[in-house]
Amino acid sequence: MPENTLSDVKQAQPADRMRLSQVLTIPNQLTLLRMVVLPFVVISMIYGHHTLSLWLFAAAAVTDAIDGIVARRFNQKTQLGQYLDPIADKLLLNSCFVAQSVIGTIPWWVTILVLLRDVVIVATVLVVVLATNMRSFPPSMFGKANTVIQIVTLITVLVNNVVLADRAPEVIAVLVGMTAVTTVLSAVHYALQVSRRLYAHEGPGEE
Fold this sequence. Notes:
By secondary structure, the chain is mostly helical. It is 83% helix and 0% strand. The protein contains seven helices and no strands.
């Protein structure tokens, strides 16, 4: 019995070291740093510290770009990072949209659209994972475009809060409209994409 226990411990140690090594990669550390900064970004936005919130959001965006470059350049892509990075991105963007809606710079209806889209996508992925053996859900072209527009919208709003003193309402209105349109389009496109994959997918128990 003790021999079996010792053997189990020895087998568990390499797996534990592997999981720890994934956490300790530079890209994943940058992603975790982005998640740590998130509460300070939101708090600074809500309490009107616009310059601080702009710098914190910019720093978070830079870490997002750097972790991707480092992961590809130095072959530090991990399974943990594949899940952690998009979660950190969505938490940052969605939280910032909520914070900006709280202070009145972005309409609530747009923020609700953004949140609902992500809730629907997460729920869809969860159902598919539980019901089938599909595990790969690559982002669509519309999804990537929506993310870029969301980032541009937030940066424009933050810069407007600091520098332009609300002198760019037309630009913000256009970006907000583009965010809403691409949010709906990306949600519909993602649903169609998953439906096609499910239709073509053959599960392990299907003939």
